Amino acid sequence: MTKILHPVLKILILCLVMLEMVVCMPGDQFKNWPVRTGPWVQPTRGEVWPKPKVQKSEEDFLALREKDFRFEIKSSEVHGECDIINEAIKRYHKRVFPPSASDTETNINQNNRRQRKRDSRRELKNDPKYKGYLEKVEIIMNNPQGCEKYPYMDMDEQYEVKVNAPDSPGTAQIIAFHVWGILRGMETFSQLVYASTQYGDALQFDGNLHSGYDTSSIEYLVNSTMVMDSPRFSHRGLLLDTSRHYIAKSVLKDNLDLMEMNKLNVFHWHMTDDPSFPYVSKKFPELSAKGAWHPTIAVYTQEDVADIIEYARMRGIRVVSEFDTPGHTQSFEPGHPGLLTECYDGDTKNGFLGPMNPTKKRVYAFVEELFEEITQVFPDKYVHLGGDEVDYKCWKSNPDISEFMNKWNLTGQYAKLESIYIKKLLDIISSFPTKNGYIVWQEVFDNGVKVKNDTIIHVWKGQWEWEMAKVTSSGLRAILSSPWYLNYINYGADWTKYYLADPMDFFGGAKQKELVLGGEACLWGEFVNSVNLIPRLWPRASAVAERLWSPASVRNTQEAKHRIQEMECRMIQRGYPAEPINGPGFCNVNWNA
Amino acid sequence: MTKILHPVLKILILCLVMLEMVVCMPGDQFKNWPVRTGPWVQPTRGEVWPKPKVQKSEEDFLALREKDFRFEIKSSEVHGECDIINEAIKRYHKRVFPPSASDTETNINQNNRRQRKRDSRRELKNDPKYKGYLEKVEIIMNNPQGCEKYPYMDMDEQYEVKVNAPDSPGTAQIIAFHVWGILRGMETFSQLVYASTQYGDALQFDGNLHSGYDTSSIEYLVNSTMVMDSPRFSHRGLLLDTSRHYIAKSVLKDNLDLMEMNKLNVFHWHMTDDPSFPYVSKKFPELSAKGAWHPTIAVYTQEDVADIIEYARMRGIRVVSEFDTPGHTQSFEPGHPGLLTECYDGDTKNGFLGPMNPTKKRVYAFVEELFEEITQVFPDKYVHLGGDEVDYKCWKSNPDISEFMNKWNLTGQYAKLESIYIKKLLDIISSFPTKNGYIVWQEVFDNGVKVKNDTIIHVWKGQWEWEMAKVTSSGLRAILSSPWYLNYINYGADWTKYYLADPMDFFGGAKQKELVLGGEACLWGEFVNSVNLIPRLWPRASAVAERLWSPASVRNTQEAKHRIQEMECRMIQRGYPAEPINGPGFCNVNWNA
Question: Which residues, at least 6 apart from B259, have a Cβ–Cβ distance to it below 8 Å?
């Protein structure tokens, strides 16, 4: 029996989900929600995305005032020396208090405002659940080794958040052993805070448009809460493709911000491919000078790459580079001719070029030099080596390759030819002292290349359940992308499909399951550029993020849709153009301001 | 035999088109193109979208300099009194010279730049096809009646553009009888101009990244050209839905800019629907106060509506309002309770509400008052009255409605009940002196409502070929939207599908075909808000725009793909976030600047 759902059944389920979204009435839990109710997806308030492992919240709450609020580093080991935490404090102070749509409203009578303000304060204080102001969140990292510098595979992201705990009322704590947990905890804390208009008469519209709402009484609140959290998977990635279209550095940075908010921790940078070579190599500057879409305005210089890696580091995100070979390398040719296979029609060259020519020695010399540079420029201990979709047609047409294969008794065995290349590449990379291991696309495994035991196989094709079982049963580690090709767009709320896919949904024992490191959402660049990358990706990638962070049991789309709706609005309110994925609705943002 | 293409065949054709895009090599016509060539869709240079009826271009060309270029109104009748042309001159001066990516480049040695500049000028002047500078485009509108104020159905959009014509070398003319033709001609002229780097050494990269390109020698050129053009269809519309999500006024304006560039001339403003009522009525302010997503930041005030209509008027675009009734009216209830039908489960009300209750007199009194206001606020002679998707289930459950129907011998005939409502609504609208006619969704026709002869039927359902034949054979005019629901997104280059649909592709005689006024692209708002509206719509709507403007014979996607690629880049270069629709590529825009 296969575990793959029949496509018709899938469509039926999707339709039911969508139908429900359109016609269902909101449940009781939203009765007190101060925005218009109706048959659309109501966002939650102050719920965390991705959902923490353990969370206990009370009805008691504290209020926060922007001017009288601070994060305070408690442990002396950290103080003043951990740039990651210091930067995070600046960042999260803003995120706790997102600019409210109402900040921009005008025409409110100032006296009236002040009068109502007093009223509202009185009402807040009259609420028996109100427990005072939260002025301080303590950051507690009791780790004598101090602050780690670079994020890495299996880094410790565990944390606790306590708000108004019985043993320290009126305060909050973010507790972790490592800086990575502190970062995740700060994000969680920032999401626990919500804007409320329940106190005062903020949403009591007086019928006169020109007086507007009195929004001065919006309160930022946080309920008494205890969170104990750590990720389910250590590799929670996102692939962006900067070759099919150039992606502006500002967009890459915005995307890193959003990855942090969604607790993703690997930016898989698919740097090069057939259409363009945007990386400015120190050793081979001609590659981008002649192979980029544009040699100065569509490239990433050494400084740009360092800047992106630093930006990611500050957010606890690894940057894993991929310079895909031996296929997907057409863009290498203009700046470094002669690496690729010349294709033939019969006895004559037809002008087309195929994958790199694995029979040429200069190919390996080049690859060694290029990757020596790359492995130094990208400090992560892992490098993604590609190895996917090698087209044998051109190799088959080339007489030099045929001769080589005859000579080595490989006649007709092109998968073996491919393996020769990959094996040599892996040996080259292994010889560099800076790297711990490598990731390759599943073809490398499928073609039977002998890889080192710590190689990670990146599963991306269909029937991934079988592939995951095969890879892990052979003792190799795996990451999954097959169900998460977000470049394939669909009409409607397709996030549920991504949400329900689980890398563990294959037949295998506990030992096999241990070898599943996580997965990556992929946004291939055929139809994505700087214009539409962020709205196309978010919040759809949020669905993948929760799958990879939260416990396997968190998979109820009826519950999740309200939280992902809050997450969508949260991203918009923080200034990132996430698109609407749940049908009609309104995030409290003033687009006309 | 039906003319509907078998779906499998359609998919096959689409695949072939996409395959071709990915693997084809560029044709000869692109050999001299100064950007990187490769197996991606090359944009044309200075080609017009939508394609004009008649165009004759020579290889001779003139050069334009931003400082020494102007539009000049020639005919004394127009001078100084036509705000539409005066505003257009300001707008198009910028569009003729879009900010070049290269403007932002730095690190170019200034002396070097000046030296090269001189070289380049010399080279330009050495080209035998170079015929001097174009300093003046004459706007000639020989119409003693002067400048019309509001665009209208069947307005005259015919124009001619002449550049370096034999009888007036070194100048250009835009000639039309009416201001609407002048506007279309200015757009066409602006698209004929292209940026060239062929003169001088601009794209001769010197291998040193820090010196960059010398881009000071980019020239704006325009070939000697004669265009005679007029639209195939008079109604070339675009529907936006501002109810399912609120759309910012700035986005509506950007969209009007893009409509103008694509020569679309009707903004169908689907203002209200079930989810929200964003229009601030003078007579019924409670409708938006209680029925909008937000009563102050998610509404269109009277001033906002007037502002949008004025913005559209300046671009020769009609604004046709739709306040859909009797279905799609849930958002009317909070601000004006009691119009809708109460639904029953057996003998008891179930709390749900259905369409407006056509048996209540107060419904008609309300509708008359509302539309009296609307028809004054929206000056267009046409109003769209909706009338689609009326769900009979709730009507069937309501005992008062059953009693009414029994009384009038209509038992069980709900389509007739619907007709009663629509007939009354049409009579009400007809009684207003300000309106010439109305547009209704096809159900009104399908349900056999007797409509006035000048009613326009808006065809939107499947099997539209039959419907178009039926509507026109009954002597009524029709506009088509069925194939152009752009909210339904697909992976890949889906614009070809929209491009190939033709409103005339149905069986019918010449008299019937004369009744086809055109069509509308629709972007329903379930999954569209201010964040993603523009990139989702453009350049996909450009495909519809060419279908509706250009002759029926212009339908070669292999030819069109290069022009729509230039149009995509043109929209981006002019500052509008059009998404990539043809696969990998690069528009010459510096996103990092």
Answer: B238, B265, B267, B315, B317, B545
In sequence order, the β-bridge partners of residue A238 are A267, A521
Q: Are A558 and A70 in contact (CB under 8 A)?
A: no
Q: Residue B263 and residue A506: Cα distance in Å, rounded?
A: 54
Annotated catalytic residue A66: no
Mean residue pLDDT across chain B? 87
Nearest to A246 among B286, B527, B586 (CB): B586
Pick the closest to residue A399 from A336, A326, A350 (CA basis). Answer: A350
Amino acid at A111: N
Listing DSSP states for B48-113 in one string gives -SSPPSEEEEEEEEEEE-GGG-EEEE--TTTTTT-HHHHHHHHHHHHHHSPPPGGGG-----HHHH
Distance CA A95, CA A90 (A): 9
Q: Does A104 touch chain B (CB under 8 A)?
A: yes
Distance CA B30, CA B40 (A): 12
Q: What tokens were used for B64?
A: 């334009």
Compute φ and ψ for B343, nearest 5 degrees.
-90, 150
Cβ of A207 within 8 Å of Cβ of B301? The answer is no
Read off the pLDDT of each residue in A140-148 and give the average, rounded to a whole number.
Answer: 87
Considering only the beta carbons, identify the residue of B245, B247, B583 that sits closest to A585. Answer: B245
Q: What is the pLDDT of residues B345-377, one digit of tens each?
A: 999 999 999 999 999 999 999 999 999 999 999
Residue of B nearest to A351 (CA): B25
Show the tokens assigned to A245: 């279209």
| Spatial separation of the C-alpha atoms in residues B159 and B138, rounded to whole Å | 13
- Is there a contact between A588 and B101 if contact means CB atoms under 8 Å apart? no
Please answer whether residues B190 and B93 qualify as being in contact, where contact means their C-beta atoms are separated by less than 8 angstroms.
no
Q: Would you call B592 an interface residue with chain A, using a CB distance cutoff of 8 Å?
A: yes
- Nearest partner of B572 among B100, B42, B250, B39, judged by Cα: B100
The predicted structure's pLDDT at residue B259: 98
Contact status of B209 with chain A (Cβ, < 8 Å): yes
- Hey, which residues does A226 pair with through a beta bridge? A56, A162
User: Does A211 score more than 60 pLDDT?
Assistant: no
User: What is the reported pLDDT for A100?
Assistant: 56
Q: Give me the pLDDT at residue B100, please.
A: 56
Distance in angstroms between the alpha carbons of the first and the last residue of chain A: 57
- Rounded to the nearest angstrom, the minimum Cα separation between A585 and chain B is 6
Among A103, A247, A350, A586, most B C-beta atoms within 10 A, so best to mutate, is A586
User: Cα(B398)–Cα(B402) distance, rounded to whole angstroms?
Assistant: 6
Give the pLDDT confidence of A227-246 residue by residue, as tens digits. 999 999 999 999 999 999 99
Examine the pLDDT at A24 and tell me if it is beyond 50.
no
User: In the predicted model, what is the mean pLDDT of residues A58-78?
Assistant: 88
Which among B490, B585, B592 is the nearest to A297, CB-wise?
A: B592
CB–CB of A586 and B207 under 8 A?
no
Which chain A residue shows the shortest CA-CA distance from B300? A592
Model confidence at A453, in pLDDT bands (50, 70, 90)?
Answer: confident
B149: tokens are: 């104020």
Q: What's B159's DSSP letter?
A: E
Q: Judge: B297–A489 Cβ closer than 8 Å, yes or no.
A: no
Q: What pLDDT, on a 0 to 100 scale, did the predictor assign at position B13?
A: 43
* Contact predicate B302/B76, CB 8 Å: no
What ipTM was reported for this prediction?
A: 0.89
Q: Residues A104, A39: contact at Cβ < 8 Å?
A: no
DSSP per residue, B301-366: -HHHHHHHHHHHHHTT-EEEEEEEESSS-TTHHHHSTT-EEEEEETTEEEEEEEEE-TT-HHHHHH
Handedness of CA A205, A210, A215, A217 (dihedral sign): negative
Place of tokens 């493709």: A241
* A-interface mutation test, from B527, B536, B568, most A Cβ less than 10 A away: B527
